[in-house]
Every structure is written in structure tokens, then in C-alpha cells.
What we know:
The complex is a heterodimer of chains A (122) and B (110).
Chain A: E1 3-7, E2 10-12, E3 18-25, E4 33-39, E5 45-51, E6 58-60, E7 68-73, E8 78-83, E9 92-100, E10 108-112, E11 116-120
Parallel strand pairs in A: 2-11
Antiparallel strand pairs in A: 1-3, 3-8, 4-5, 4-9, 5-6, 7-8, 9-10, 9-11
Chain B: E1 9-12, E2 18-23, E3 35-39, E4 46-49, E5 63-68, E6 71-76, E7 85-93, E8 98-101, E9 105-109
Amino acid sequence: QVQLVESGGGVVQPGRSLRLSCAASGFTFRSYGMVWVRQAPGKGLEWVALIWDDGSNKYYADSVKGRFTVSRDNSKDTLYLQMDILRAEDTAMYYCATIRGGSSATWYFELWGRGTLVTVSS
Amino acid sequence: QSVLTQPPSVSAAPGQKVTISCSGSNSNIGDNYVSWYQQVPGTAPKLLIYDNNKRPSGIPDRFSGSKSGTSATLGITGLQTGDEADYYCETWDSSLSAVVFGGGTKLTVL
């Protein structure tokens, strides 16, 4: 079954860390770039981070640059998002998705997971 | 404030047609392809349109996309109550080196 399953969300205090995982199955994970997208309660979609299929290039939204790190383990078919120095404004549902398209000009997000909820609160 | 501008809401009656606009600039829509996503509340986003006007397998031809200059448009014909959802445009911004989304448009089928 072709799917992405996020995990690792929960309630965390401001300033603390959390690591999200996105497990892929049913397709050749190492052939796809991957993206993290988040959605704060009642708000729109916000791009967080992006990583190429081989992990050689990474991009981050300004709002998380220096605090979040995207990585992947192609031997485990898993994508990660290490979130450090968490803030209240990082509270959101976090989705992972596969990237299709040959270049940044044509990238689009084809397969999405169901998301994992992160709540940053004291 | 989103880099891409969408109307907050649109509405139309069942069976009618609606369009949703997405306005950007030369560095994003003007320079790259646009995608559209549908999100029913409480569920994950779903790819609706990619490469400005292409539909993934399984998306009915009631959904269409177009792009002109620095604006893109999503069209939905033969509206159904099941089309009620939030719709987002998305593209790459070459100046920001970032993925950008529109603020989202809530479609109500009256």
C-alpha cells in the first residue's frame, strides 16, 4: 500500500526539542524528494522544509531556519524533522509529502501523509 | 501575509461554475509552474492540479487550471456538495528559494 505515515508529535514545552518521522511504504522512497508542510489550527498551509531524493540539498522556510533540520534515511525509507528551540507559533499539524517534477520550477506534492500534531505549550 | 494572494472565500450553487484566483509575481508564478490542492477540513491536502493545468489520475475533468503572466486560476464546473473544501495554490519562488502557498480559499456550495 502506497502511503506516508507521520509520527512523533505531541505536547512539548517552549524551548524544548522534538523529532518527527515520516515512514514511507509501497514505493521507492529513495527516488523522491520530500517536503514538510505544516498547518496551524484554523490557518492555511505553510511550507517548512524540503530535501532532495539523495539528501544532498535542503531548503528551509525563514521561520524555522536555524532551528529545524530535515534529514532522511533511505535505508529505512524514513524522513525526519528535528525541531529544536520550539516556540508556541510552531504549534501545528505537520504533514510530509512526496515531491514530483524535475526541477524547482515544476515541483509539486503528490502523496501526502495524514499528519502528526505538535503542540508547544507550557 | 502570504506571498500568493487568494480570495478568502467563494460560493456558488450546485451545478454552477466557480473560479478561484491566485495572484503572485514574476519570481514565483511568473517564473514557475503552479499546483493546486484541495483540503477537506480535518483531512490532509490532496493534489488537484499540477504544471498549471494537468490533472492527476482520478481527478475529474470538472477541475481545470490555467496560468497567465503572474496569475493562476482554478476552475470547477458542475459544483457538487462534496467539493466544499479549502483550496490552495502553490509554486516555487525563485528569489526566495522557497515553496510558497496561497492563503487558501474556502469554497461553499450553497
